[in-house]
């Protein structure tokens, strides 16, 4: 058994499944056993994940490492730049055509200048927004066993191309089994970012909330200040009980730590927790 602090223990088989305490750091750990391996995949059977984002890449790519730095998973979320540019160009063409059409209608009806300007100012931007957002490609997340991308272990599906008040993502296995849904409500982002983790049946089982409302408000005014005001999240149950943290490390390269040591009973599915950590980065543009 390996602790997130780096200490490794060899235990007798009768300890399998028991809750023990690390003699070095005091963390409470659940001793692993074949029956406890999540989804039959040992890569998810842990309480700490290190995420290292690949820079100089068009797509969002991550290498997921164990606490000792050993690579265990590979994550990719394509950005589709050419298809996105095409969507914006289509929106521009549609807005231009709508502007020409509305101008002709205004002249035919003989509307006053004030009313005509109001109609023109609102119709063209709305047309651009609807057309461009409707044509933008969905950006699904795929979690592979390794960088070869030969075997898919997990998918995070973007459910809507565009959303006004809320956006959802569905976490599923490679076989299509739905594990959870991640819900982001834009109204909460005005003051403090918040994500909801919903079980496949519907109820909320966990939340990810920015760790400090003061820092959240400062980021709205000052931005990240070159990374000094980092966006970190705490993971909690609906009753407020702490499950873990998702923190950005202060380094030149983007590195993140998903620490679930506050959830030794494995209340939160580690597959869902990792999917949430990825979306907290790519979904918030951090």
Describe this structure in words.
The chain has 286 residues and is an alpha+beta fold. Among the domains are: 81-135; 151-282, no CATH class. Helices cover 26% and strands 29% of the residues. The chain contains four helices and 14 strands. Strands 3-4-5-6-7-8-9-10-11-12-13-14 form a twelve-stranded antiparallel barrel. Strand 6 and strand 7 (152-158) form a beta hairpin. It is elongated, with a radius of gyration of 23 Å.
List keywords for this structure.
single chain; 286 residues; alpha+beta; 12-stranded antiparallel barrel; 4 helices; 14 strands; elongated
Distance between the termini: 33 Å
> Which strand order do you get reading across the main beta sheet?
3-4-5-6-7-8-9-10-11-12-13-14
The count of helical stretches stands at: 4
- The gross shape turns out to be elongated
- What's the order of the H and E elements? EEEEEHHEEEEEEHEEEH
Class computed from helices, strands and strand pairing? alpha+beta
In total, the number of strands is 14
Oligomer designation = single chain
Mean residue pLDDT: 82
Q: Which percent band covers the strand fraction?
A: 25-35%
Radius of gyration: 23 Å
Report the major sheet: 12 strands, antiparallel, barrel
Name the poorly predicted regions: 33-38
Helix coverage percent of residues? 25-40%
């Amino acid at each position: 058994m390996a602790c997130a602090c780096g200490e490794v223990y060899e235990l007798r088989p009768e300890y399998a499944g028991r809750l023990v305490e690390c003699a070095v750091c005091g963390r409470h750990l659940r001793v692993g056993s074949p029956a406890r391996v999540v989804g039959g995949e040992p890569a998810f059977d842990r309480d700490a994940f290190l995420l290292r984002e690949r820079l100089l890449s068009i797509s969002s790519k991550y290498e997921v490492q164990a606490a000792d730095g050993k690579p265990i998973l590979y994550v990719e979320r394509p950005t589709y730049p050419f298809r996105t540019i095409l969507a914006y160009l289509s929106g521009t063409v549609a807005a231009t055509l709508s502007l020409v059409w509305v101008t002709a209608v205004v002249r035919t009806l003989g509307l006053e200048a004030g009313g005509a300007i109001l109609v023109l100012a609102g119709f063209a931007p709305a047309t651009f927004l609807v057309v461009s957002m409707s044509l933008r490609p969905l950006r699904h997340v795929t979690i592979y066993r390794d960088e070869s991308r030969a075997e898919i272990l997990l998918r995070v599906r973007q459910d809507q191309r565009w959303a006004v008040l809320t956006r959802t993502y569905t976490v599923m296995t490679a076989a299509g089994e739905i594990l959870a849904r991640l819900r982001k409500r834009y109204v909460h982002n005005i003051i403090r970012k918040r994500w909801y983790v919903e079980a496949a049946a519907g109820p909320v089982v966990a939340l990810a909330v920015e760790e400090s409302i003061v820092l959240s408000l400062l980021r709205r005014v000052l931005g990240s200040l070159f990374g000094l005001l980092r966006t970190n999240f705490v993971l909690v149950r609906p009753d407020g009980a702490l499950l873990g943290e998702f923190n950005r490390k202060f380094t030149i390269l983007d590195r993140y730590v998903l620490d679930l040591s506050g959830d030794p009973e494995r209340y939160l599915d580690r597959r869902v927790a990792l999917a949430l950590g990825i979306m907290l980065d790519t979904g918030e543009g951090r």
